[in-house]
Amino acid sequence: MKNILSYFLLAASLLLLISCVYAQDKIIFTNSKEIKDIKVIDVNGEVITYEKTKSPGNQKRLFTDKVFSVKYADGKEKIIYNPDTSMGELAVERQRMFINGTREAREKYSEFTAYIIGFGFGVVGPWLGGISFPVLTPFPPATGVFISSLMSPKMTNQPVDKKYFNNEEFLMGYQKKARGIKTRHALFGALTGIAAGLYMFNIVR
Length: 205
What we know:
Helix content is 52%, strand content 17%. It has helices at 2-22, 92-108, 113-131, 139-150, 168-204; strands spanning 25-29, 34-44, 47-52, 59-63, 67-71, 77-79. A hairpin with a 5-residue loop joins strand 5 and strand 6 (77-79). Helix 3 (113-131) packs parallel to helix 5.
């Protein structure tokens, strides 16, 4: 029994040691992006000094104007974001929800329809330009991207907490990020479509 207890305590100690070693600080930006695996050395006014855990001693500095908070390895958080609500900036907790929405979209949002629309309009471009005027080639692809950007993104995966569905700031952050992702997919589809259209047009011609 004593041996079992000793092994249990040893295993628990090792797990605690590993978690302490691998727990690192991180910097969270207002657009939900993060810098991870770092050690924050100092937060002084408008500058954060930190170093990568893989390259200790190589200190870097970062201005705080786009930073929301610093989260330390022990779980504590230092809020850097200082909004000017008179200029339309969101209050701290509202901005936090906006960040959560943006992160949700970046990690889970997927949109293939926008790529198909962009590709379809992209294919038309070289044919229209080749048959009439080359200057008209970009118009169909641009139209496809524009149409895709008008389509309202929908949540493709439910967030952990369903109450986020009714949170204005969460939805605002999700929609903004998802719309950007959708537009990039449409643009990539349009460029791919142009290449495919040029290839087909040259074969037929």
